[in-house]
Amino acid sequence: MEQDFEAIERLIAVMEQHDLDRMKVRVGETLYELVRREAAAPVVTQIGHVPAPVMEGSGPAPVAGPPKNVKRVSAPLTGVFYRSSSPDSAAFVNEGQRVELGDVLCILEAMKLFNEIQSEFAGTIVRIIPQNGELVSQGEDLFWIEP
């Protein structure tokens, strides 16, 4: 029980640090969903092994699947998505921009480590899916690139 409390405290600190309104995180076998209802009072729900029901009008709008010719760049780990190296810097890439193999697309921050995500494809960015500062899960689409 003490470990759950400490995990929740750390998750709330991450929410406050990144000014997040909603966050879903798996810690071991337990899935936590934190939702900020008021500016200073996050609400924590321990979901366990059951996926949370999606209620109409809650959370981000679903993302339609990519066209067949589009290459998908997915998150290799769970972390906070950043489009630039600092708040004062320009974004690494923008929609409509051509990228080459190995170009840095974004940064994912996980446990205070900043991981550069590089393009595995050459082509044009047709969609950037997460918002800057949004928590993304491993395997979630980040970019769609048209060769």
Tell me what the structure shows.
This protein is mainly β and 147 residues long. It has 2 domains: 2-46, no CATH class; 71-146, Beta Barrel (OB fold (Dihydrolipoamide Acetyltransferase, E2P)), CATH 2.40.50. The protein contains 1 helix and 11 strands; from the N terminus they run αβββββββββββ. The strands form 3 sheets. A 4-stranded antiparallel beta sheet has the order 4-11-9-6, with no helix packed on it. Strands 8-7-5-10 form a 4-stranded antiparallel beta sheet, with no helix packed on it. A hairpin with a 2-residue loop joins strand 1 (22-27) and strand 2 (30-38). The longest helix has 16 residues, at 2-17. It is elongated, with a radius of gyration of 17 Å. Residues 38-55 have low confidence and may be disordered.
